[in-house]
Write a structure and sequence with these properties.
- The structure is a single chain.
- The protein is of the alpha/beta class and about 450 residues long.
- It has 18 helices and twelve strands.
- The strands form two sheets. Strands 9-8-7-6-10-11-12 form a seven-stranded mixed sheet, with helices on both faces. A five-stranded mixed sheet has the order 1-2-4-3-5.
- Strand 10, helix 13 and strand 11 form a beta-alpha-beta unit.
- Bound molecules: NADPH dihydro-nicotinamide-adenine-dinucleotide phosphate.
- The site of NADPH dihydro-nicotinamide-adenine-dinucleotide phosphate has 24 residues, from helix 10.
Amino acid sequence: MSDYAQRVLDGLKARNAHEPEFIQAATEILTTLKPVIDKHPEYEKAGLLERYVEPERIIMFRVPWIDDNGQVQVNRGYRVQFNSAIGPYKGGLRLHPSVNLSIIKFLGLEQILKNSLTGLPIGGGKGGSDFDPKGKSDNEVQRFCQSFMTELYRHIGKDIDVPAGDIGVGAREIGFLYGQYKRITGSYEGVLTGKGLTWGGSLTRKEATGFGLCYLTQAMLQANGKDVAGKTVVISGSGNVAIYAAQKITEMGGKVVAMSDSNGYIHDPDGVKLDVIKQLKEVERKRIREYVKAVPTASYTEGCSGIWTIPCQIALPCATQNEINEESAKALIAGGVEAVGEGANMPSTLEATAAFQKAGVLFAPAKAANAGGVAVSALEMSQNSMRLSWNFEEVDAKLKDIMIGIFHKVDEAAKEYATPGDYVAGANIAGFLKVADAMMAQGAV
Ligand code: NDP
């Protein structure tokens, strides 16, 4: 690592010692930026990296709401507006009990580079709360979302900050949030993405992250003389990203044999029946263990990490951060994995990533591989501004172009600045250069 980047990382560790996920993400990014920093000594004089790793603004707030028993509950809300050098802040809201400032900051830092890679004019932000929508009634979720927006509305806007969904935030939550924003401000504007199709949403948004992951994974395989067709695939998670990744990879000729939720995983060697998964997860909001009732030839195992011991050629982690540690990576390598495409944000630990790269596994990092969601969110913003709607095929075609474009940018940056095939470095460098240019041009702000 360059001296400058190392000093910035040391300072960041000292100031944020209690934020392990944020440190993990910053370590990976700063480590791989060495060739760029060496080439641009002017960055140090401009304090570019110090500014880059410090959010422009952090908003933390109380979210009081009343549960169905009439009891007041209090959660903590966050919005980290990280970097607006290339456009308004853009990034999802996560509702999960594990949410804390470290997780929101790591997601925001990653989001800056991801958004830059899409080639669209969007800055980086992220937010959420430690509220757990699981087990709550629709009315409780509604009251929480209204309370959350009652504070958030004053910090966001269609040209300021445009949140979207993430873990625990789907169509239902975006609806409640949007309704409250509109009620408070009286303004019908594209302030959130992931909206319903009858009120400003974009076709293909629901599918975008999963589909985009498959388009990029296919581009990576094909650039290396391989193809999705005929491959056995393991996908973790069974939420928005996982479901549509499973759908598209199946259309491409891959066979998905396992999926999971936070309790355990199912193994269906005949190929996972996606209609059963969709019914369970999207309609009934049930646990994945119920799958074996509908498909008795499949098996269910309690616990998440065992899914990576199932032999496969393609692994698509689509659940959460750090779900693949070094041991799981080694199990995948032993099982013959040829390509990993990160659907979730930072699902591989630094050690796992190193193990994949050492073993020559094609590795598409999250900020490139899962950029499809935010890319279509930006297309939703464009449609809102123009007051028109593109059809499914139009948006899907744009998504595919963007994902293939991202792969080529990443591939070229890896060849020019790092090691050919090192898509981790390639993604960080390609994403960073655009943001760095804009920050240099705009002065020390
Ligand atoms: P969902 O809430 O729709 O689904 C998340 C899935 O992951 C569920 O199956 C959930 O199981 C499982 N999961 C959550 N936490 C854990 C955990 N600690 N251990 C094991 N499994 C867990 O979220 P998304 O599909 O939207 O998001 C998944 C990942 O993709 C996240 O990392 C997110 O940041 C990332 N992402 C999402 C985008 C999007 O457009 N939605 C865009 C880019 C990235 P359970 O139901 O049991 O909780």
